[in-house]
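Researcher: Structure for this, please.
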Amino acid sequence: MNEGDVMDAQEKEEAYQHAYKLGKASYSKNVAKGLSGYLPSLDGIIKNSEISSEINLGIVEIPIKKIIGTYSHSRSIAFASNFMPLISGETEFKAKWTNLYGIHMEEGIRDPIKVYEYLNWFYVVEGNKRVSVLKYCDAYAMSANVTRLIPKRDETDPIINIYYEFLEFNKKTGINSIWFSKENSFKELGKYLDKYEPKLTTYDDKYKHFMGNFYRPFREVYYKLGGDKLNITTGDAILEYIKVYGIPNEIKEEVLKNRIKKFMVELEALSHNESVEVRTDTIEIPKKNVITSITNLMTYKKKSKLKVAFVYAKTIKNSGWTYAHNLGRLHVENVLKDQISTTYIENVPENNQAYKYLKELAKQNYDIIFTTSPTYITPTLKAALEFQNVKFLNCSETHSFKHVRTYFGRIHEPRFLTGIIAGALTKTNIIGYVATYPIPEVITGINAFALGVKMVNPYAKVKVVWTHKWDQPEKSKNFGIVLNNSGADIISHDDLPNPGDASKEYGVYSLKSSDNENSFVSKAHFAMPIWNWGIFYEKLLRNVLSGTWKMVFDVLNSNPKLVNFWWGMDTGMVDIIYSKTHVPVQIQTLVELMKKMIIQNEYNPFTGPIYDQNNNLRIPKDEVATYEQILSMNWFVNGVEGEIPKLNDEENIFDPLTEMLGVRK
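Model: Predicted structure, token format:
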């Protein structure tokens, strides 16, 4: 034996002893937690009755990190759960392991192993020692002859639902390294990859390019920054990143590192599944004392005014929603006078293009930027991550981030009251509802309206059609006519009146025939919910000016929280107006009574028992729906006629006019 061979033997011995120590440490750690210290075995996880089919996939390159166990229990006890050896002494096992280690270090292990794939994890039938050596050497992938075990479909099991989504994704892309913890994530990533058109260089298709030029560099940086310690998958993290930044053709490590470093706060919140602090009360303005007064004086000597910007999706003239927010802006300009200066931008695209507008405002040193549509949440988060000296707030109720605070109103409360008016006034017991988009806020509003209707008129039905558009008065009017022709004598919809446009239908109203027998005009406007955004903007900006805004905005303190502002009628941010002429006095009295009870927290519109369209009990008797239940509603209450289409899925969205007539495309 020459000196080189002796050195090789020593290196192999040292490698095995180190691997053995890693195995013993893993074993002890798991046992201390009350877990098995050995490798998981597939025969102890599944039964034959749970498998619907077996498919041989042939030789496939598989990620070593996804090889998590062996097929049989008899082989599992030779390895710890991290695949490191547990056998000591001079044994045949050790000799084979050290020999494989030497082969790998000299020329690489090339022979494929044999595995079963179950729920996108791999269990070794032949080749456990090869896997052990490659895991010890921190290799990325290896060849394997794969047999896929497909479990029976179970709609109640989210893991199996995710797996079936993976099967479709894998069939199209060939990607098997990615896994998600939430349903529909594979579909989301698939949509991004459909639009992904990179300049191919090293790889022959875009999916391999995505994995080699983006996913693997992302994973490496993400793990270096502690991502492997978070309770989410790398797939979860990369999808959240893509939503904000998109998929680049090539990645610059320094840019990626800086972005992920800032983004980790959001990913940690996702990992911990942190609960949201829902601020339903108004923001208290602290009383001034000598210290805060001196501090504020010193601060505003350097900066005389707070600069505030508002971002609008439509124009003030043509959108009731934008008009309402702009009234709020004018209100704070009036009451805060020389303490603030404001600006606004109209017609900002409702997609990721909005980022360049936000970036420009941030560069102009605006202190606070309000983005007034839920469609802006992604570009708002992207801007907030880049410009952390600027405070961003987004008008939405369904998103929670640490860098972006969200605000919205419990508009379902006044909608419930308008439902009472509609239910009391209908003669046909058919009430039409022209809805915009099938998002939780709209669905919640429809349900609250229907509950108000049923409170006073158990025989009435609410018939729903969808426009899939915001601020489309002509389209909404046409749908109102269709509903009227189908028997509805009262119509309600989500639109707000435009300034100076008395002809627009809005709120709760009735129609009558005009001189032209084919057209209709408003006969009477009975009621509508209203937004008083100025109340929120004033309270929040006064809080900022008082110097206590860090309580709301500081995302890096020792105990940061996800904060949503969700104000109701008790704050005055949402309210109802109704016609004293067309609404009878008795109904006015009932509405005022219910309004008072809601404001004083003596009654909640979503108090059980509440049943859905299929007569399933959703909210038990005397229980009140939680914040999460209200903001995740994807079902209609009993008494609503119509279906909830899938959002952003054209194949499942039928034209409301044809749907109303019972015709489907």
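Researcher: Any notable elements?
Model: The longest strand covers residues 51-63. Residues 288-302, 555-559, 649-665 have pLDDT under 50 and may be disordered.
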